[in-house]
Iron-only hydrogenase maturation protein HydE
Amino acid sequence: MKKVLDKLYKTNSLSKDQLIYILNNLDKSLQNYLFQLARDTTIKIYGNKVFIRGLLEYSNHCKNNCMYCGIRRDNKNVDRYRLSEEEILLSLEEGYKIGYKTFVLQGGEDLYFTDDIFESLILKIKKQFPDVAVTLSIGERSYESYDRFHRAGADRFLLRHEVANVQLYNELHPGMNFENRKNCLYNLKKIGYQEGAGFLVGLPGENNEILAENLIFLKNLAPAMVGIGPLIPHPDTPLKDEKVGSAEKTIVMLSLTRLLLPTALIPITTALNTICEDGLERGLMAGGNVVMLNLSPIYVRKKYEIYKNKETRDAHELKTIEEKAKNVGFVIDMGRGDNINFRRNEDGK
Ligand code: SAM
């Protein structure tokens, strides 16, 4: 087994069967070995840095009905909001003053935000904060829309594939289909975004074969970023009686992703931090190197409840992150934090 891990470390590649073999046979000591290999790989490429992003949850309106998500269309208990352009720019300005150089705009698939509105918003953000990287996490749109946003200045795009098993994907996302999700991801890549894919750990029907399929999907797509988080059931969704996804398994998947895609930027996700007090430290020790802190106005934070007891850290809590990172030998980095394959000048050009 150690041999298979060594092969993965050296070649950054394994077959689906070998990945299943690892997942079926990982004991504590091999797991620690895996984490060490993943951490070494991160440090070799990015150093001992944690890249900091500011997250702005601009709307909790959503036309989709994902079975696990607290802001799904059919959840009538959600107090819906959308931020005005002014509120968005003011929140980003607050983050900019603290020193943030990456903004992530995330929301439900809110049709109010037409292509025209997004394009104009991106242009304004880039004009006001020219040295900042703009990341969109706004769901599925056409090639033309993605291209327009990219031309307006959007640098990165997060769109988790959620689960790479077609049948399970289609069951969990009524009215959506995996083929379209996949096309969106390949379109984003073709357009030139630093794109992020990723998946949930602990979905009903999941097994090690499905987890290995997620890894193979990522290996083939080769995204610049990968977000992996445990499922946290929300009481107002059809998955309310499911178990919380395992933190340990999430971290194992994070470390395998690091070894398959050494240059990926891999966040230690809010969901992992929500279910695990030392999630940040454990994630850093296993190949993670990004943290997102919340820039949303305080009055909307509780309303963006995609899962129960969501624990986002406020953008001002940098000191806490700094301390926690330091305890495991990492330092925070407030730069743009581009993927190494997309590095540009510090002035953003
Ligand atoms: N609408 C955009 C999209 O589809 O990419 C972004 C917003 S969506 C709410 C962001 C992520 O939240 C999803 O990719 C999903 O993995 C995660 N999420 C939603 N519900 C969750 C839950 N109950 N537990 C853990 N993560 C969840």
User: Anything to note?
Assistant: The domain at 2-337 is CATH 3.20.20.70 (TIM Barrel).
